[in-house]
Every structure is written in C-alpha cells, then in structure tokens.
Amino acid sequence: MLASGSIMTETVLRIGLAQIDSRLGDVERNVERHLDSIAGAREAGVDLLVFPELSLTGYRLLHLTPRVALKAGSPVLERLAEAARPMRVLVGFVEEGERGVLHNSAVLLSGGKAVYLHRKLYLPTYGIFQDKRFMVAGKRLEPASLPWGKVGVLICEDLWHPELARRLAVTGVKLLIVMSAAPGRIGAEPVPVSHETWETLTRSTAVVNTCWVAYCGRVGWEEGSFYSGCSHIVRPGGEIAERAPILDEHLLVAELDLRDADRLRWRLPLLDDERFDIEGPST
C-alpha cells in the first residue's frame, strides 16, 4: 500500500525506433518523413519515438552544415513538437548554439516544446568522418526526466566511450538510448560486419550497466556511404529483445518494463559496488 502523498511511477514504456532514410541537406523533405513516422507511431500507441542521429539533415553534410542548422526553439522543431502530442519524440539535428557555434544534437520534444538537449560529446574526425571540422563537441552529460524515470541519451561515437554510459547508469538511468548514423560495410554475411560490432557494444553496455539499451540507426545511401539501419533493443541482461530489418525503413515498436533493470540490479549489484576512491592512472 502506498504511503499518503506518494506517487506511483509508470514503469512500462512503449518505445518506437523510427529507422528512416534522411535526404542530405533537405530539411523540408526530412520533416515530412518525420511527420509520417509520428503518425504511424501514434497509431501504434507509442509513448516515446526515437529518430536516428542527424535525422533532420542527413549525416555527411560537410560545408552544408551551417546552412541546415536550427536553433533549439526553431519553428521546424515547434512544428514537430505540436504534431507529436501527446507522445515524446527524440530528434537529431544540427543545432546552432550560443554565438553561432554548431553542434550535433538530439532534442526531446514534449508538450509542444523542446524539454531536453544532448550535444554529441565525441566527434570522430578520422577516415571518412569529419565531424570536428564543422561542429563543436558538447561538454555536458545529464539524463532526461520522463514519467518512467531517468533516460540517458548518447549519439553514435559517444557509446564507444564506456564511461559515459556508466556515469548515466549510476545516476539511476534504466534506459539508454543511442541515436546513430553509422556507415555500414557489406559483405557475404547475412548481417553487415559493422552491425555485429554495434550489437557487441550495445549488449555489453546493457550487461555491465544493467540497463535497457535502445539503438536507432538510419538506412539508405548518402555520398557513397551505406547505412544498414539494424535498429534493435537490448534487455538489461544483454539479450536482444527486438530487431528491425536490415536496409529497409521501419518503425520498430516494443514495450519495455523498466523494472527489469531493478530486478537485475538486485541480483547483480555492479552499480552499487562502483568505487570512486581507487587511486592510479587518470587522465
């Protein structure tokens, strides 16, 4: 029985991962694609809809980057926020921040407005990646607050730095969302090798942080790069719960009971045992 004045927190979240193909530099067309996905998610009873990294702009923007940048309160985002009611929607875009500085950002839209912002913390600039040439890395890591509890958001390369997921988990995050636009590699295998690497990352992250992980990737071709999609959801114990098809646009919908993280943390108290007093090498 609840004590007087206590509040029952919802624990079952119906999440949707919108695995879409974003057209490079065409914000107007991409907005329409987002609206289509929002309509489909509403019909499916989705509570939280997630889009891939830079879903409003495409990824390999290079010198197009400043032309497609939006402020966090832009009419484009307001339109999506209004269309999304009563859902919560997580969108990827190029953000024009303070003094015109550009960021690879994710914005959470709820109640007709932007309520949370995550700026990509690690910008790859090697191989085909040119992120740091055109954007500035974020400097702040914090969870988003939802009716189901705290949710962590990371963008692509961020997941390759495991301390970020751990820092979110120890604050009480039970669901980690990863928005990605990672190029794939096609081979003879039924699943792209690059995606096997991503599943290794997401599954290990779920296990060591005893949390749900939802990975939303994009599909399609862009400037010679191939994106396989392969969006998926991982249980706190590391098992794949749901997968989207490879190569095709798809709305992946699943119900997550965040109490599953609590149950595993009771049996496997890795976060409770975390130590911050160990001396030794540091950055």
Provide key terms for this protein.
Nitrilase/N-carbamoyl-D-aminoacid amidohydrolase; 283 residues; globular; six-stranded mixed beta sheet; alpha/beta
Short summary:
It contains six helices and 14 strands.
Give a structural overview.
With 283 residues, the protein is α/β, with parallel strands linked by helices. A six-stranded mixed β-sheet has the order 5-4-3-2-1-14. The protein starts with 11 loop residues before the first strand and ends in a 16-residue tail after the last helix. 23% of the residues lie in helices and 29% in strands. Strand 2 (48-50), helix 2 (75-84) and strand 3 (88-96) form a beta-alpha-beta unit. It has one domain: 4-Layer Sandwich (Nitrilase/N-carbamoyl-D-aminoacid amidohydrolase). It has helices at residues 27-43, 75-84, 131-134, 162-169, 193-209, 259-267, and strands at 12-19, 48-50, 88-96, 102-110, 113-119, 144-146, 149-155, 175-180, 212-217, 219-222, 225-228, 232-234, 240-243, 250-257. The longest helix has 17 residues, at 27-43. It has six helices and 14 strands.
CATH topology: Nitrilase/N-carbamoyl-D-aminoacid amidohydrolase
Percentage of residues assigned to helices: 10-25%
Protein structure class = alpha/beta
Write down the domain tally. Answer: 1
CATH class: Alpha Beta
Number of helices: 6
Largest beta-sheet characterization:
6 strands, mixed
Output mean pLDDT.
Answer: 92
The CATH superfamily title? Carbon-nitrogen hydrolase
Backbone CA Rg? 18 Å
> What is the number of strand segments?
14
Strand order of the largest sheet: 5-4-3-2-1-14
What percent strand? 25-35%
| CATH architecture assignment | 4-Layer Sandwich
